[in-house]
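Support request from a user on the community tier.

User writes: "When I paste my structure tokens into the form, the page sometimes reloads and wipes my input. The last time it worked, I copied everything first. Here is what I submitted, just in case something in the input itself triggers the reload:"
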């Protein structure tokens, strides 16, 4: 049983195929996210990636927004037209394979969590993703990124990639530490995992003991967990 795992990002769409144990059986592929990133354009890229990956039995998609029963509700870092788009059904129609879709940060966390107590995933990329887990169970669609944080701005507006480029790495890293400090007394997590492409810009030595930087590939490899109960 092979699973095609797709990770949709604001700048790139990635794909890899894994076997039933979650081990990669193909090389990771990436295509730039189309602009504008409309549902039709993004779905076409996913179909193109699927054709490059060879044989697979099912598809998992990590999507940067709220997803309910395979239908996208929000996509703040993509284009217009995502509210109410039946992504799972449309991709299934085009690929001929069953499809499951969940929030991208949620999928990434499924690959790295230990399944004990309260665990959190924060992804740092084009925007900020968030995943919450209790004893290994994912609590879907908690969009902390769009909650007010400081100075009238949301978490995402303070630590998103656009702001990082504007203020520079040093100030941006300080803000990431402020986010971590704010989340800790709210969720009292056992572990917080930092993923996404910009997590590699942080100095791990400066992070609290219960905060860990994880590989961005986890955004893909967590896809198999969508099919495991």
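"...and here is what came back when it finally went through:"
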């Amino acid at each position: 049983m092979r699973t095609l795992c797709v990770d949709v990002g604001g700048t790139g769409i990635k794909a890899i195929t894994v076997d039933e144990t979650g081990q990669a059986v193909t090389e990771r592929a990436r295509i730039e996210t189309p602009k504008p990133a409309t549902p039709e354009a993004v779905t076409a890229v996913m179909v193109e990636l699927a054709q490059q990956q060879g044989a697979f039995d099912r598809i998992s998609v990590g999507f940067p927004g709220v997803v309910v029963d395979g239908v996208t509700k929000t996509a703040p870092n993509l284009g217009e037209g995502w509210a109410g788009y039946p992504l799972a059904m449309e991709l299934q129609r085009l690929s001929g394979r069953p499809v499951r879709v969940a929030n991208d940060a949620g999928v990434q966390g499924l690959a790295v969590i230990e399944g004990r107590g309260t665990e959190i995933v924060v992804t740092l990329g084009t925007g900020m993703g968030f995943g919450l887990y209790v004893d290994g169970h994912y609590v879907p669609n908690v969009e902390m990124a769009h909650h007010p944080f400081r100075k009238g701005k949301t978490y995402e507006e303070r630590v998103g990639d656009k702001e990082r480029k504007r203020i520079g790495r040093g100030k941006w890293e300080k803000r990431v530490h402020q986010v971590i400090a704010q989340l800790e007394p709210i969720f009292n997590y056992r572990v917080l995992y930092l993923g996404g492409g910009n997590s590699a810009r942080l100095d791990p030595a400066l992070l609290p003991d219960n905060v860990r930087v994880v590989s961005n590939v986890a955004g893909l490899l967590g896809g198999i967990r969508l099919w495991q109960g």
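Agent notes: The reload is a front-end session timeout and is unrelated to the input. The longest helix spans residues 169-187. The chain has a mean pLDDT of 94. Escalated to web team.
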